[in-house]
């Protein structure tokens, strides 16, 4: 299997590159990036399988010619609102499999519109297969197995900023909090700046309670077939002061990514701050045997693992040839149980909330 | 005039810090755990069945 890795010099990209080169299924790994010197150093560390390709995601011609040399494109380049659509378009045009860490609502919607084109070229595109969307989509599918139907889905994500203090992560957090919130209420999809009150959510230990705010997430696209009464996606930081700072910075249009990174770098050092772990929780409400039933699943690990492990597993699965053409969600592309079991095998803690007093 | 302005800015800053600190104190106590997070093992995940039974 030949893999083209975009954003290969970033924190997540470097981890995915290392994991893919360790796999016996990968014969060639093409590291795509804009800085040749950094790429050359990365390839020298990864061994014979890896080679460098100097490319810019915004350059359609160069990206297109790189895509046709691969069987699977893995996009770790961020922030997703800038990189997702051009990378997915090039992969779909080339008729190769595509998987990304994309977590931008608008970009994922634009990629979903390429479904017909992907079916025509035989490409399978999984836009967003990291923590959320990705693991959260699969947890929702796991919960759905237990219910006859589903009425409500709540997706909650808590990042530790100290886990991944990168410019791309900072830019993504700023962009997400600045974007209008997308949610489903009374079966209707709404996108507005209602700016609801912060919401406390209980995550698997050691993360515990974290204050979250509503945001727009591609997960809404993934659940569109469920005819839900309501759905909310919420995001927060385990470092409370950093979350307050992030919310304040996101309200200031002039705040740049570098200024935000500096401010968050100071804020994460201030108490009270949660543990340096990230987590996600999915609550699904529906009916089972005529009665209302709920299921809540969660994961906890370091953010780098929660992003890199699903991307690596997805790339290996897509490269094995078992795939359905089109723009699909992680739950449509992969078996949720096998995928989550593989993640658990890599050390990610998957848990279920037992509603018993402790 | 300048001294009055400085006093006003100073009071506003102290007030903002006070509000922020008050909020920190008000939210420093977390509620008790909502339930028990039970880990699902790799083998359990591979076995198709109801995950609610330990």
Structural description of this entry:
The complex is a heterodimer of chains A (358) and B (54). By secondary structure, chain A is α/β, with parallel strands linked by helices. Chain A has 2 domains: 2-130 and 304-345, Rossmann fold (3-Layer(aba) Sandwich), CATH 3.40.50.720; 135-303, Dihydrodipicolinate Reductase, domain 2, CATH 3.30.360.10. Chain A has helices spanning 11-22, 36-46, 60-67, 80-94, 105-112, 115-121, 135-144, 167-178, 219-222, 240-250, 257-267, 303-319, 330-333, 336-345; strands spanning 2-6, 28-33, 50-54, 72-75, 97-100, 124-126, 149-159, 181-185, 188-192, 199-203, 208-214, 230-237, 278-288, 291-301, 326-328, 349-354. In chain A, helix 3 (60-67) crosses helix 4, helix 4 (80-94) packs parallel to helix 5 and helix 7 (135-144) packs across helix 14. The longest helix of chain A is centred in the C-terminal third of the chain and has 17 residues, at 303-319. The termini of chain A are far apart. Chain B has 54 residues and is mostly helical. Residues 50-54 of chain B have low confidence and may be disordered.
Topology of this structure?
The complex is a heterodimer of chains A (358) and B (54).
Chain A (H helix, E strand, L loop, with lengths): L1 E5 L4 H12 L5 E6 L2 H11 L3 E5 L5 H8 L4 E4 L4 H15 L2 E4 L4 H8 L2 H7 L2 E3 L8 H10 L4 E11 L7 H12 L2 E5 L2 E5 L6 E5 L4 E7 L4 H4 L7 E8 L2 H11 L6 H11 L10 E11 L2 E11 L1 H17 L6 E3 L1 H4 L2 H10 L3 E6 L4
Parallel strand pairs in A: 1-2, 1-4, 2-3, 4-5, 5-6, 6-15, 7-12
Antiparallel strand pairs in A: 7-13, 8-9, 8-12, 10-11, 11-12, 13-14, 14-16
Helix pairs in contact in A: 1-12, 3-4, 4-5, 7-14, 8-10, 8-11, 10-11
Chain B lengths: L1 H25 L9 E4 L2 H5 L8
């Amino acid at each position: 299997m030949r893999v083209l890795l975009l954003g290969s010099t970033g924190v997540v990209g470097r981890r995915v590159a290392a994991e893919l080169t360790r796999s016996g299924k990968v014969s060639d790994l093409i590291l795509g990036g804009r800085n040749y010197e950094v790429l050359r150093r990365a390839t020298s560390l990864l061994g014979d399988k890896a080679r460098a390709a100097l490319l810019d995601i915004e350059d359609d011609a160069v990206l297109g010619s790189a895509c046709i040399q691969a069987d699977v494109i893995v996009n770790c380049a961020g922030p997703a609102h800038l990189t997702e659509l051009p990378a997915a378009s090039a992969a779909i045009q080339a008729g190769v499999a595509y998987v990304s860490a994309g977590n931008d609502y608008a970009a994922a919607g634009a990629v979903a519109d390429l479904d017909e084109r992907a079916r025509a070229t035989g490409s399978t595109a999984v836009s967003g297969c990291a923590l959320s969307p990705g693991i959260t989509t699969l947890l929702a599918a796991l919960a759905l197995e237990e219910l006859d139907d589903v009425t409500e889905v709540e997706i909650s994500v808590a990042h530790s900023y100290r886990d991944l203090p990168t410019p791309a992560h900072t830019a993504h957090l700023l962009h997400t909090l600045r974007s209008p919130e997308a949610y489903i209420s009374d079966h209707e999809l709404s996108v507005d700046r209602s700016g609801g009150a912060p919401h406390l959510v209980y995550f698997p230990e050691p993360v515990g309670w974290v204050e979250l705010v509503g945001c727009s997430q591609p997960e809404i696209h993934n659940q569109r077939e469920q005819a839900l009464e309501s759905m909310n996606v919420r995001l927060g930081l385990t470092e409370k002061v950093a979350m307050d700072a992030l919310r304040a910075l996101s309200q200031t249009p002039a705040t740049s990514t570098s200024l935000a990174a500096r401010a968050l770098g100071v804020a994460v050092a201030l108490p009270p701050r949660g543990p340096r772990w990230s987590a996600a929780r999915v609550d699904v409400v529906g009916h089972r045997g005529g009665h209302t039933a709920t299921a809540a699943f969660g994961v906890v690990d370091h953010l780098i693992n929660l992003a890199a492990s699903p991307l690596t597993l997805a790339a290996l699965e897509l490269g094995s040839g078992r795939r359905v053409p089109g723009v699909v969600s992680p739950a449509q592309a992969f078996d949720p149980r096998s995928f989550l079991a593989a993640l658990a095998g890599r050390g990610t803690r998957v848990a279920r909330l037992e509603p018993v007093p402790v | 005039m300048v001294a009055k302005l400085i006093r006003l800015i100073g009071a506003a800053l102290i007030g903002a810090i006070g509000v922020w600190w008050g909020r920190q104190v008000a939210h420093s106590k977390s509620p008790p755990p909502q339930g028990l997070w039970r880990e699902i093992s790799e083998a359990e995940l591979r076995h198709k069945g109801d995950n609610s039974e330990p």
